[in-house]
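Sequence only, no structure available. Ideas?
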Amino acid sequence: MRRALTPVLAFVVAIAGCGDHSAGQGPPKIPIVRVVHPIEREVTDYEYFTGRTAAVDHVLIKARATGYLDKMNFKAGSNVKEGDTLFIIDPRPYKAAVDRAMGQVAIAESKLKLASLELTRGLTISKTPGAISQADLDKYAADKSGAEATVQAAKADAEAADLNLKFTDVKSPINGVVGNNLITVGNLVTQDNTLLTTVVSMDPMYAYFDVDERTMLRVHKLIREGKVKSVKDGAETPVQFGLANEAQDFPNEGKLDFVNNQVDASTGTLQVRGIIPNPAQENNSGRLLTPGLFLRVRLPIGEPHKSLLVPQSAIGTDQGKKFLYVVNEKNIVEYRPIQPGPLQADSLQVVEPLKIVRGSQGVRLANPGEQGVDSITLADQVIVSGLQRVRSGTPVDPKPAADQRK
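Reply:
I predicted one. Tokens follow.
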């Protein structure tokens, strides 16, 4: 019969078993991370806003004569040119008024002719002493002057009547696109009151957007430093626009042409306006822009300058502060604080190095006046993949990222 193990022997066996199990695991595996080197290139700082398009010319077409609408000579939504007839108001009452006014001109001119003849005859008779009195000559002269004034007034009435007649022919004052007819043929329209339609210009197009105070003050500082020229001084400042269906692209380029003279106290913004070319598209497919469209606006701030860039995915956040994890020459992860800059179209982001000091506790920001080194350089290996597996001081196995941008 087998004897049971003594307590001491059982403890020794258990210890031996545990030792064998630990030996089988081996040392902890060093995590593999993907790294890239920062790149340096010229970049432009941008600020982003939203805005709306607006027509350069927007005309409300109102009746300038009272009468019944006789004809409509356009198709709603079509292109019209300056001088094209849009509506015709019944011209017959106004034509009669013109004829009546012209008759009054003819009567006045005949009276003027008679007054002129009487004055001429009186002056001839006055050559014979005592044949005519001076009072009669003065009367003839006054009659002629009155007749001349009557002719002038009659012609003015005729001109006004003719102008009213022309107002029955309602024309477009600009080139553009006509809106819907707001009244139909046969209705009574009232002078300076009845709105008939609208016409808006299409090329070029305005783009209005609001700039916040922070950006406005930043631009003013750059202007004072001579790094940016003011639009108010005639400088041409480019501005880029993207439509709602153009993702993150800004393919439409224009220029700033107006900056308002005061900040809106209710919103804390300054209204700015750009102007964008809007030519007709090929194959008569219309124009790209129409008034009232939503726009994404990208405004360059300052001149292009060289900066360091890293993939946006490499930037981490710690209590609101941005940082990068860098692999040093000993393959140890280091925490590097940075100041993030604008995001670029290719998903790279500008990073500005901060001054740091290395000590026994690791890396820290340099104090004011303290000698330090840049927190990030072109030679550094920035971790872009595997960030969740590492911390500052962690040994890693760095491998080049396959998608490193050049």
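DSSP finds four helices and 24 strands in the chain.
Hope that gets you unstuck.
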